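pls design
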């Protein structure tokens, strides 16, 4: 067992708006005595770097997405052409394009790791970042592992090649584990570990006790998630419109931004809230830092995120950790986190009326809201604290 463990930690487009859980895991790894060297492909758009630790993260990160000319040329002589041909036969030109993009970055990653004395890299993506690590393994024997955060179909072509030589993989839900085994078969690593990302239960906590909503006063809803159609923000807006029509004084704030920094789905949602006549009831906050998210959660009566599909949902975890009664959708792996009626509520995706009914039921039943506040916090404390992921990574890397 190595006393002084040094690892690489590869995250695409770091530090992005949803990357708080990576930063938490990094901090927990360092508490465990691990020397973490951060790598990324490139910076995200400036408007998505909203965290108070973003500048520190940038200064600590080596960006490999713009390799030197020598990496571009030398990578062509060390590619595993036979394995690439096999993958390209299945996935075609799209995979070949990915290889040409990733090969120089792989060479740069390999060179940086040798310089820094790193023999293992953990990759928090199964898209191009995983391909970069797999190619670096072929080029120079760099050991790597993966984390799967969502359905494999979301992460592009060449999945068998990306996974085949990984030492192990962590997977955030049982549902995704079943998918990995079905899709990859013998190409899956021998060691597959269920380990969701988590939250800092000390950072995400309340300053005072939760107070349920009063139907006769303003009801504050909060949501947090990337502005994309699959996050269901449009359904949550429709639910607010329904509740207002029923005579409830409801306001909703949504934290998060689209992937273009505000020029994409943000504009669609702006138009929708105007068409629904919710200009004075719905606010799009853009990307905000974790302290602001925590304050919004403490101010909220209810947290709701109406995703069409969600692998698990760190936003749900943060809300539950802060003792906010949480409503999610029975989509993806969310039911592995939220047990309906026990530590939160689940509704069908794409069902604004059911969502409105569930919000109203929670407003009308303060005892239920108080119970969900308590049980939600307890559940996260026991099963989803960020230190657990760091402990698993250190344990498994030490076995490599």
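designed seq:
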């Amino acid at each position: 067992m190595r006393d002084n463990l040094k690892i690489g930690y590869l995250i695409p487009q770091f530090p992005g708006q949803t990357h708080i859980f990576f930063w938490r895991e990094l901090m927990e790894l360092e508490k465990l005595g691990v020397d973490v060297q951060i790598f990324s492909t490139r910076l995200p758009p400036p408007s998505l770097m909203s965290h108070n630790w973003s500048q520190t993260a940038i200064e600590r990160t080596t960006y490999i997405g713009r390799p030197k000319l020598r990496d571009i040329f030398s990578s062509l002589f060390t590619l595993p052409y036979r394995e690439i041909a096999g993958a390209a036969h299945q996935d075609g030109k799209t995979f070949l394009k990915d290889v040409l993009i990733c090969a120089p970055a792989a060479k740069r990653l390999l060179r940086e790791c040798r310089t820094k004395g790193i023999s293992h890299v953990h990759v928090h993506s199964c898209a191009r970042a995983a391909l970069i690590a797999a190619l670096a393994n072929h080029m120079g024997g760099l050991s790597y592992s993966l984390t799967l955060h969502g359905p494999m179909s979301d992460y592009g072509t060449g999945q068998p090649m990306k996974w085949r030589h990984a030492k192990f993989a962590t997977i955030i839900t049982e549902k995704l584990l079943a998918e990995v085994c079905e899709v990859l078969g013998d190409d899956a690593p021998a060691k597959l570990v269920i380990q969701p990302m988590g939250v800092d239960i000390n950072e995400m906590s309340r300053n005072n006790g939760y107070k349920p909503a009063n139907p006769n006063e303003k009801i504050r809803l909060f949501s947090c998630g990337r502005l994309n159609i699959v996050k269901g923000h449009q359904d949550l807006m429709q639910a607010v419109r329904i509740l207002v029509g029923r005579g409830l004084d409801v306001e909703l704030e949504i934290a998060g931004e689209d992937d273009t920094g505000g020029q994409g789905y943000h504009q669609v949602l702006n138009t929708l809230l105007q068409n629904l006549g919710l200009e004075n009831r719905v606010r799009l906050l853009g990307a905000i830092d974790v302290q602001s998210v925590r304050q919004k959660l403490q101010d909220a009566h209810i947290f709701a995120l109406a995703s069409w599909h969600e692998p698990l949902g760190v936003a749900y975890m943060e809300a539950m950790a802060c003792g906010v009664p949480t409503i999610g959708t029975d989509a993806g792996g969310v039911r592995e986190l939220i047990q309906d009626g026990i530590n939160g509520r689940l509704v069908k995706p794409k069902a604004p009326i059911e969502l409105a009914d569930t919000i109203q039921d929670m407003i009308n039943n303060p005892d239920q809201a108080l119970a969900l506040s308590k049980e939600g916090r307890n559940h996260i404390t026991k099963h989803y604290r960020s230190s657990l992921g760091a402990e698993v990574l250190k344990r498994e890397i030490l076995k490599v």
